[in-house]
Design goal:
Low-confidence stretches of chain A: none
CATH superfamily of chain A: Winged helix-like DNA-binding domain superfamily/Winged helix DNA-binding domain
Number of domains of chain A: 1
Distance between the termini of chain A: 40 Å
CATH architecture of chain A: Orthogonal Bundle
Oligomer: homodimer
Helix content of chain A: 55-70%
Radius of gyration of chain A: 18 Å
Order of helices and strands of chain A: HHEHHEEHH
Number of helices of chain A: 6
Largest sheet of chain A: 3 strands, antiparallel
Largest interface: A-B, 55 and 56 residues
CATH class of chain A: Mainly Alpha
Structural class of chain A: mainly alpha
Shape of chain A: globular
CATH topology of chain A: Arc Repressor Mutant, subunit A
Mean pLDDT of chain A: 93
Strand content of chain A: 5-15%
DNA sequence: CTGAATCCTTAATGATACTG
DNA sequence: CAGTATCATTAAGGATTCAG
């Protein structure tokens, strides 16, 4: 099953469906993950570069979110034994594939924004 | 702009991009909204029917989430002046269009699950 | 049947200071 | 440079009770 339309009713929403959708939701939950992933679409980056991309994030949140994303197999962390130490973050294959999710979210968000503004103003 | 690949780097992530993606994230944030929307894909339902579809939700959360979804233009609430009062919830056009977001989330989630299991077991 | 009201617990985020 | 530690604040969620 790869589409909701393949189900007859909600009672058929199998564990698989719920688990897979929740996996995806958990990847982006929180205030910053979508921004961090988006930042890394444009190539591997160092901690400080991501921090500059997302000005209002603080270091505690950035390192926590990066750890989450690493644990979830979305980014990989590479440490270079230089002085001072250099660290680079890069998307995994799954991380890059997440682009299609964000693309659809963007498309739906734009359309929805148009609908709502059309109906409330 | 309707795709991330139309940007050269993250600094071009315009307000439009951020706002639209956040609109979408906010629609499903929280523990229950994806399930509620999915339940309504299969037609308009009454409060109690949704409650039965999602066994572990409690009434405070269900009515709160439904109010959120209504305020965001995802569902409409229709009251029938019967005794006892009947209420039906139904997806708006935007709500139905959200199917494509969930479809991509499902597809990515399944693929990701395969990747991660393949690499950790 | 469809919720609203209240209280409580836990999770998420923020601010600030500090370190190898 | 790339974080960690600590404390404070806010948001999310759960349990229970009650009402039109």
């Amino acid at each position: 099953m790869t589409k909701i339309s393949e189900l007859k009713d909600f009672s058929e929403c199998s564990t698989t469906y719920i688990l897979a959708v929740n996996d995806t939701i958990n990847v982006i939950n929180g205030k910053w993950k979508a921004a961090i992933i988006s930042s890394l679409f444009f190539g591997k980056k160092r901690y400080g570069e991501i921090e500059k991309d997302i000005p209002k994030i603080n270091s505690r949140m950035l390192s926590k979110e990066l750890r989450d994303l690493e644990a979830n197999g979305i980014v990989v962390r590479k440490v270079y034994d230089t002085i001072p130490v250099g660290v680079e973050y890069e998307l995994t294959e799954s991380g890059h594939a997440f682009r299609k999710v964000l693309d659809v979210m963007l498309e739906w968000g734009l359309e929805h924004r148009k609908n709502v503004i059309g109906k409330t103003i």
